[in-house]
Amino acid sequence: MTAKTHYFRKEVRRMSSKREERKKAKMIEKMEAETCEYNKVKKPTNVVLNVLLAVMSLISILPFIFVVIISLTDEQTSLYRKSSVSMHTTIL
Fold first, then answer.
1. What pLDDT is attached to residue 28?
2. Strands (E), 1-92
3. What 8-state DSSP symbol labels residue 72?
4. Of 47, 67, 43, whose CA–CA distance to 55 is shortest?
5. What's the rounded Cα separation, in Å, for the pair 71 and 64?
6. Distance of CA 80 to the CA centre of its chain
7. CA 11, CA 24: separation in Å to the nearest integer?
8. Which residues of 12-50 are buried (b: 16+ CB within 10 A; e: fewer)?
């Protein structure tokens, strides 16, 4: 057996082991995909859940936004309201 023949046989063994490793990796990926198939959420269900989550988050955030808006009202506006209320009560 010559050195060239020995080298080529060694290369063929190395290549076949790489092929086997790739085959095993693909088989593992395929098995994982099959087992994960049951954990996937379908598109319509995902849309419904996202809309529900968005509505719930708005319901929880909007009161805080309203409190901030109300607390930042102009002082003149609140004084105007107080004076107009006092004027109505004095007339009555």
1. 77
2. none
3. T
4. 47
5. 11
6. 47
7. 20
8. eeeeeeeeeeeeeeeeeeeeeeeeeeeeeeeeeeeeeee
Angle at 57 between CA 53 and CA 60, to 5 degrees: 140
Q: State the Cα–Cα distance between residues 50 and 32, nearest whole angstrom.
A: 26
| Mean pLDDT of all residues belonging to the chain | 76
The answer to whether the beta carbons of residues 5 and 12 sit under 8 Å apart is no
Question: Would the pLDDT of 51 be above 80?
Answer: yes
Torsion angles phi and psi, residue 45, rounded to 5: -65, -40
d(CA 48, CA 55): 11
Single-letter code of the amino acid located at 80? Y
